[in-house]
Structure formats: C-alpha cells, structure tokens
Design a protein that fits this description.
Layout: H1 7-51, H2 62-103, H3 110-118, H4 124-134, H5 137-145, H6 151-192
Length: 193
C-alpha cells in the first residue's frame, strides 16, 4: 500500500496508524475507569445498606452513613470530571485524525465521513455524565432520611452538575467546530507559505 502513497505521506500515514492505536487504548482506559467508579459506588451502597435500618447488621451508625454518603457524592463528582476529561481527549484525538486525513491523499476519509453522517447528536459522554449525576440520588435519599440539615447545599451542587451537562452539550459542538476551523485555517496558512 505504501508504494501508492508519496514518500512525504508515509510519515503522516504512520502517525495516523499510531493515533488509531492510541485512540483504542484511550477507549479501553475510559471503559476501565467507568467500571471502577460503578464498582466503587456499588460497594458504598452495600455499606450503607449494612448500616441502615433497625434489622441491619451494623445499624445505629448514623455518622458512618452520613460520611459514606458524602464520600459517594464526592466520588460521583470525580467520576463526572473524569468523563469530561475523556470527552475532551476524544474530541482532540478525532480533530487530529481528521486533519491527518486531509494531509493524506486518500479517497476514503472515515472520520470525516462519520462526522458528516452523524451531524449534531448527543455524545455518549453526555449520557455518561448524566449517569454520574443520577448515581448521587440514592445517597441524597440516605442523607435526607438521616435528617442532614445541609442536604439542600448538596442538592444545589447536583443541580450545578446538571447545568454543566446542559452547557457543555450546547457549547461543546460549537467550541469544537470553532477550534477545528481555526486550526484548519492555520494549517492552510502554513502550507501556502
């Protein structure tokens, strides 16, 4: 295949291949991170179940339940931030791959074709972030049941997460498009010099 590609494009093709492998590795790490957070929050739910109610094996530990519920809410916030980081990383990787497709003299440009075919859509990372926020609900219920006076402050923090999800859904594609347009403009300017 390399005999059909000019010598200058062979380096670009190798970078393209490396980026594809790296994209797969990032996807694997992303999946493992999600599994970790879901497992951790599930264990915390079990701990709360063991300490709650009259018949629970470790009942009567209100402070422990409150602390564990706060820990779970903090972990959900960290999960939310992790998902947002992976989303930014994916956007950057795909933008670079589309630029590399422009530099290669290929008749098929799969990442550009996919972006055009999808158009505007809700990214999976938005749904994942929503799951991270919704995973805080059982822990808010526990805190309310325990009579936590500062519950409203935590509920407000959850609402802030929802606003962030909506804001990034609206602004994300526009920011990405503007970034791509600016970078394409720079790369075109560099090639004309």
């Amino acid at each position: 295949m390399s005999a059909m590609i000019p010598d200058a494009s062979i380096d670009v093709l190798e970078v393209y291949k490396i980026y594809l492998v790296d994209l797969g590795n990032i996807g694997s790490r992303h999946t493992e991170a999600n599994k970790f957070y879901v497992s951790l929050l599930s264990v915390i739910l079990v701990v709360i179940g063991l300490t709650g109610g009259k018949d629970a094996p470790l009942s009567g530990f209100v402070e422990l339940q409150q602390s564990v519920a706060l820990l779970a809410i903090s972990i959900s916030a960290l999960w939310f931030a992790t998902i947002a980081t992976y989303a930014r990383l994916y956007r950057a990787k795909f933008m670079v791959l589309r630029r590399l497709e422009d530099e290669l003299t290929l008749t098929v440009r799969p990442f550009q074709a996919e972006a055009q075919a999808l158009g505007k859509f809700v990214h999976l990372s938005m749904i994942e972030r929503l799951v991270a926020v919704l995973m805080t609900a059982p822990f808010f219920v526990v805190l309310q049941h325990l009579g936590a006076n500062w519950l409203w402050a935590l509920l407000a923090a959850d609402c802030v997460f929802l606003v962030l999800i909506i804001a990034t859904t609206i602004a994300g594609p526009l920011t990405t498009a503007a970034t791509e347009a600016a970078s394409t403009g720079r790369s075109n300017a560099n090639t004309t010099k």
